[in-house]
Amino acid sequence: MILITGGAGFIGANFVLEWLARNDEPIINLDKLTYAGNLETLKPLEREARHRFVFGDICDRKLVSMLLNKYQPRAIINFAAESHVDRSIHGPDDFIQTNIVGTFHLLEAARAYWSTLPEDGRDSFRFIHVSTDEVFGSLDAKDPAFCETTAYLPNSPYAASKASADHLVRAWSHTYGLPVITTNCSNNYGPYQFPEKLIPLVIFNALSGKALPVYGDGRQVRDWLYVKDHCAAICKVLETGHVGETYNIGGRNEKANIEVVHGICTILDELRPLSGTRSYTEQIEFVKDRPGHDRRYAIDASKIERELGWMPAETFETGLRRTVQWYLENGNWVQNVTAGTYRAWVDKQYGTTPSTSAS
Ligand code: NAD
Ligand code: DAU
Q1: What are the tens digits of pLDDT across the range 94-151?
Q2: Is 98 in the pocket of ligand 1 (CB under 6 A)?
Q3: 184 CB under 6 A from ligand 1?
Q4: Is 108 a catalytic residue?
Q5: What span, in angstroms and rounded, lies between the C-alpha atoms of 31 and 185?
Q6: Does residue 327 carry a catalytic annotation?
Q7: Is 133 a known active-site residue?
Q8: Where are the beta strands (DSSP E) in the chain?
């Protein structure tokens, strides 16, 4: 049995679905169901005895301790977080609470539980902390990619909250011997991503006839990894990662945002063509830049490739096509998650709901 947190969110839910498709081992899934958590994603598991969903907060140490003592998991994988940079700029409070204070409570509950285990249980127990490449700050065009020893220089409230959590995790290993491993991954994309993030937002807006908002000059670079490749990397880290280590995870797919947006438009022009000679690229609109926008992220993933034998299966081209196809085939999921509070977010972030002459 493993306990995961944030398993109703984008990466966590993909992890749960992949895990249960490949393993007999049950999962306890603790999630607070914020706007980003969606039980709709876990619907295929409604009758699955190996999946136990628990509605709750990682800040609730009593609840976490109860779950640990009751189910005696061999590992905790911490996906739970506030994850959207733009939201962290509008309101950092929840990021401090969940990402920092929540990780602290989880570590303390884990430490108390771990210390009661017999020696072999203590040796094999793992606390896997899922973090981000944003903790390393921003690169210039010619800088080498982030490696595990790159200094932390977080720039946004989100990145600073994740960096703080990473430091706590490291300290709990160094001081108390808790067997932790931290992963720092680049931008994920794929099925079930909430359409506030670039790729699903652009697909959703394109299909709704709305503007495709590109921040600033659109030349910011991100390294993109298909979500199932990230999940596979976390499984590798859980099974064969070295305690106390950190692993950078990335797809070696550096792309400027404007290239990504053009890539989506090209696939949509083919799969869901507009009338006449029109292209979805006509909906692209350059908008006000994100404050403090990091220019470039790039991941050197050679440590996890070399030491744990992990490699991504998907290229950006195949992964992006799969993702666009998934959103085309799963309009209901998108419909359900974009009701209500989603509209309020779009109005706050983009002024008014973006619309173009195509609508
Ligand atoms: P997400 O926002 O889609 O999902 C987060 C999940 O955590 C949601 O289900 C939410 O309900 C839950 N949650 C939030 N606060 C909680 C709390 N206090 N207690 C319990 N559950 C809570 O995020 P994601 O994109 O799936 O990211 C998952 C993890 O991976 C995060 O830690 C994020 O920092 C990290 N990460 C994300 C990316 C990416 O590109 N999305 C890349 C690298 C690392
Ligand atoms: O690098 C890993 C990180 O990737 C994760 O830790 C975060 O949880 C995840 O949200 C993601 O952060 P980004 O800020 O890079 O992702 P986002 O999809 O918000 O933006 C990707 C790029 O696209 C970024 O340069 C900002 C830009 N952008 C984003 C949106 C939402 C736009 O140009 N227009 C938009 O409307």
Answers
A1: 999 999 999 999 999 999 999 999 999 999 999 999 999 999 999 999 999 999 999 9
A2: yes
A3: no
A4: no
A5: 21
A6: no
A7: yes
A8: 2-5, 27-31, 51-55, 75-78, 126-132, 180-185, 187-189, 212-215, 221-226, 246-249, 254-256, 284-287
